[in-house]
Amino acid sequence: LRAAGPDYLAGLNPEQREAVETLDGPLLVLAGAGTGKTRVLTTRIAHILALGRARPFEILAVTFTNKAAREMRERVGKLLGQAAEGMQWLGTFHSIGTRILRRHAELVGLQSSFTILDTDDQIRLIKQVLSAENIDDKRWPARQLAFAIDGWKNRALGPKDVPAGEAQAFAAGRGAELYGIYQARLKQLNAVDFGDLLLGPIRIFRDHPDVLEQYHRRFRFMLVDEYQDTNVAQYLWLRLLAQGSKNLACVGDDDQSIYGWRGAEVENILRFERDFPGAKVVRLERNYRSTGHILNAASHLIAKNEGRLGKTLRPQTELGEKVTVAGSWDSGEEARAIGDEIEALQSKGHKLDDMAILVRASFQMREFEERFITLGLPYRVIGGPRFYERAEIRDAMAYLRVVASPADALAFERIVNVPKRGLGDAALKLINERARADEVTLPEAARRLCDAGEMKGKARAALKDLILSFDRWSGLIDKTPHTELAEIILEESGYTDMWAKDRTAEAQGRLENLKELVRSMEPFENLRGFLEHVSLVMDADRGPSEDAVTIMTLHGAKGLEFDTVFLPGWEEGLFPHQRSLDESGRAGLEEERRLAYVGLTRARRRAKIWFASNRRVHGMWQSSIPSRFLDELPEADVDVVEAPATFGGGMGGGYGPSRFDNAQPFSSTYATPGWRRAQERGGATASPGPGARRGGPMTIEGELVASSSAKSAGFK
Ligand code: ATP
Ligand code: MG
């Protein structure tokens, strides 16, 4: 036995320690939730630095979210007892890809100031491509092509590599061709989409061995967290880089692979041993996160999946509290009951920071937000209906983008007539034509049109005014603090005023969001840094660091942990999600089950599952039946909780059927405490087969939710 090493190694178990200390050669840590995989990676970085095996900027470390990257940076600092400075290559695939692409942009025909399009911009651009090619976007929606292109990019396929059969599916076989045109347009605009952030570097590495060589020399150690969710492009990118030092350490858990719908391939885990012969594989079995009942429940549930690599998980603490399952009458009641539970826990001294509500679909969040606002309970929403995706924020951002890079045509188009300046489609068409003819940016084309007198009257005055404003704002970039500049722009452009004069209900909220936007710019050094951040944020956590409940999606919660986890909405159609079942059948169901496993294993001490008999989705009431996953939980580890008294009073209390659009027959047993009782009464109904989805799927807020029928659900 070797003598105890430095402090940071002291707390590790022997397998973890082996994974940390095996620095040379490829390493794969394959282990279940909460076994310390992320901790191993963090400690490994500290170890590399402490031994002086590499300098901070020679370590490439990939995390799944920006938030995880920040946390890893902090933890390494703590382990070393000093700030981990200079770790420039710690981030997400996207942020690291951006960095590499900016350094060598010219090798793929871009300028290093390229803009990163978000989904919304991407769709707008594809619409333009479709219309230029005379393709009816009602018949062939832009969104559909965007989805196909993303899928191809996830598999590292360029326009020429798309298999003929797949291209056939769009616009009479023109899929691949349109993809090519879209790429050409992106290049003209000096823009990239998310997929290009990886594809660009891959192309550069392949076509320019000297560049790849530079990175081989640089990256002495490479580490990847959540490896089970890498897609083919990410895998190829890693493999190219790892040909250098071969010191690639990946950690993952096949049971937590939840991004199959986005192209992630669990097979990458299996490939690892093939592509890196002699790779060391370490398995960790002790779970340090969750108490026994929670871990048993999660392990039992995931065991229903076929084709797992299979792992053992052993709890390290007491059995603790059982997982609770509770039913509610509707989703509003669910939000009220969970709000009450949170307040009760808080009054017993539990911190809100240690509690999270993890939802399957982001539309579920709003009801909790509203309830918490009523209660005055601080909360933060992570991901979901993202702040930066709101219309007013996008408009404001478009102004900032044009100021920072005048070549950003999509941004210019977005705001040229917002607020209304009399610069309609005709004016925009003129500007676009001129830009193409003269090969200049849109603002420059606009300037030339005005100067040449080709634009007349009011439109000319308005355009001239806008161009002069942009000149003035651009001139302020280096002279004025960027938050102040943002205020000036929003003010002088008339944008704030537009909402101030607006009489609609949302206007006030929009003004507040604009203020919030300016506030959110404060931590950044300059405008460019901020814009870069926004185009990359996937986890836009808001607000100050006050004690607050977290609301987020199950997908976003990967890798995180909380003392108490609330899991609402365990209903057929919502969870498992109807769309997954429809599109991917058994594989879809298994991915949903992995998501349930991820949800349960986020909890340290308390996991509280809820389901509602009725849910309002986009203003429409739908009845629902409990999720099949509830039946898959082991009884010994679960407590079925009586429904809260607030709605036990039958038809009294103002819960009249009139509240329901679909006016179901009101039953006196709707407050049945749990799905088990339904099972006792209704027999087969508790294992909802395909019949439960008889109502067929409905499209709501972009989500498919089963309009299953309570009448068949045994709740009567
Ligand atoms: P996930 O699969 O959910 O990402 P993980 O395998 O990455 O989980 P970690 O987040 O690294 O697990 O660790 C889970 C928890 O267990 C953390 O709170 C961590 O600090 C703790 N932990 C890990 N290893 C040990 C150990 N040897 N002793 C005590 N606590 C540990
Ligand atoms: Mg982890």
Give the overall average pLDDT: 83
Ligand roster: adenosine-5'-triphosphate, magnesium ion
Assign a percent range to the helix content.
Answer: 40-55%
* End-to-end gap: 66 Å
Class computed from helices, strands and strand pairing: alpha/beta
Radius of gyration: 27 Å
Largest sheet, if any? 8 strands, mixed
Q: Report the principal-axis shape.
A: globular
Low-confidence stretches: 538-544, 645-716
Q: Counting H and I runs of at least 4 residues, what is the number of helices?
A: 28
What's the multimeric state?
Answer: single chain
Number of separate strands: 20
Name the beta content range: 5-15%
Structural commentary:
The protein is of the alpha/beta class and 716 residues long. It has 28 helices and 20 strands. Strands 11, 12, 13, 14, 15, 16, 17 and 18 form an 8-stranded mixed beta sheet that branches. Strands 3-2-6-7-1-8 form a 6-stranded parallel beta sheet, with helices on both faces. Strands 4-5 form a two-stranded parallel sheet. A hairpin with a 2-residue loop joins strand 16 (603-617) and strand 17. It is globular and about 80 Å long. Mean pLDDT is 83; it is low at 538-544 and 645-716. The structure holds adenosine-5'-triphosphate and magnesium ion. Adenosine-5'-triphosphate is lined by residues 11-13, 16, 31, 33-39, 253, 256, 288-289, 559, 561, 601. Magnesium ion binds at residues 37-38, 225, 559. Residues 10-291 form the UvrD-like helicase ATP-binding domain. ATP binds at residues 31-38. Its EC number is 5.6.2.4. InterPro entries: DExx_box_DNA_helicase_dom_sf (IPR013986), DNA_helicase_UvrD-like_C (IPR014017), DNA_helicase_UvrD/REP (IPR000212), P-loop_NTPase (IPR027417), UvrD-like_ATP-bd (IPR014016). Belongs to the helicase family. UvrD subfamily.
